[in-house]
Write a structure and sequence with these properties.
Blueprint: E1 7-11, H1 15-23, E2 28-32, H2 47-59, E3 63-68, H3 77-90, E4 94-97, H4 100-109, E5 115-117, H5 126-135, E6 139-141, H6 148-157, E7 161-168, H7 180-185, E8 202-205, E9 211-215, E10 223-224, H8 229-235, E11 239-242, H9 249-268, H10 278-287
Parallel strand pairs: 1-2, 1-11, 2-3, 3-4, 4-5, 5-6, 6-7, 7-11
Antiparallel strand pairs: 7-10, 8-9
Length: about 300
């Protein structure tokens, strides 16, 4: 794969984050509009600022992806289609989507427009990717739990582009398919309103009511795949996605800049192994924290 064909995709919850991502080397940015996206509590973009953001990115040869990545109700379908139509008229490069019904309607309305299957579709094997290809998707964003050897196998046999998350928060369930927030607070992750109850402290009590464990026992460690850049690119992954549409611009800038550095290093010296600078590691650790504890994990594993 050539450097020009590879994509580093950064999050933008607002215009400041979008500019920061682009200025630090993102090839593309993803963001939500005024509705129908999985980060309802992010600042997000109005129709006016979305148009401005797309124009700003295009002038700098950076692609833009709109997140329409929640499950939609019947009475919302037309509004979702209208929003997609507006974004397409403004020049958006792709739409990330979860709802298969909405996807089918958009494919009928805009047959040649690139739709990307959201990670919240929980596609975690080749069979799922092949089905997405049959449906007409141009790219599959794999579930964040897929191990690296399975990513390699999928890429070797996939007729469509493969995107993986390379850095950021992980869900305690399968890429957002969690009902915990819905059950305890009537806030659904599939509607973009997860309250993150898994991030709170809990006590694990056995049948005798003895405390077995306590603390943040449901909160997953976070993903850092920087050491796996060569293997994932060689596998055929088209795009690395940085999680963080609820993160400030400082996080977006630092993480984008560091991943840009090591991606460029790989393409310049593909035969050399990546050695992570300790200062870069420290910057990544400090950029992404929940105020309680720094977390670090190279998540991808081989069986």
């Amino acid at each position: 794969m050539n450097k020009e064909d590879f994509e580093l995709l950064s999050p933008a919850q607002d215009f400041t984050c979008l500019k920061t991502a682009i200025q630090n080397g993102a090839n593309s940015v993803y963001f939500g509009g005024p509705s129908f996206n999985a980060r309802a509590s992010a600042t997000n973009f109005t129709k006016e600022t979305m148009k401005q953001a797309i124009e700003y990115a295009k002038l700098r040869n950076v692609k833009t992806h709109l997140t329409l990545n929640i499950l939609t109700k019947n009475e919302e379908i037309q509004n979702a289609i209208d929003l997609a139509s507006y974004a397409i008229s403004c020049g958006i490069d792709a739409i990330i989507i979860q709802d298969l019904g909405l996807a089918k309607l958009l494919m009928k309305e805009f047959p040649n427009f690139p739709l990307h299957a959201s990670t919240q579709m929980t596609v975690h094997n080749l069979e799922g990717v092949l089905e997405l290809a049959k449906l007409g998707f141009k790219r599959a964003v794999l579930a964040r739990e897929v191990p690296i050897n399975e990513i390699e196998y999928i890429c070797q046999n996939s007729p469509i582009e493969i995107e993986v998350f390379i850095h950021g928060a992980l869900c305690v369930s399968y890429s957002g398919q969690c009902l915990f927030s819905s059950m305890v607070g009537a806030r659904s992750g599939n509607r973009g309103k997860c309250a993150g109850p898994c991030r709170l402290p809990y006590k694990l009590i056995d049948s005798n009511k003895h405390i077995v464990d306590s603390g943040y026992i449901l909160s997953p460690k976070d993903l850092c795949g920087i050491n796996f850049i060569p293997r994932l690119i060689n596998a055929g992954v088209k795009c690395f996605k940085i999680e963080g549409r609820l993160k400030p611009s400082q996080y977006v800038g630092i993480v984008t800049k560091i991943y840009r550095k090591y991606i460029d290093m790989f393409f310049e010296f593909p035969e050399k192994s990546i050695e992570l600078d300790e200062n870069d590691k420290l910057d990544l650790l400090q950029a992404f924290n929940r105020s309680r504890i720094f977390r670090w994990l190279s998540f991808y594993k081989s069986k």
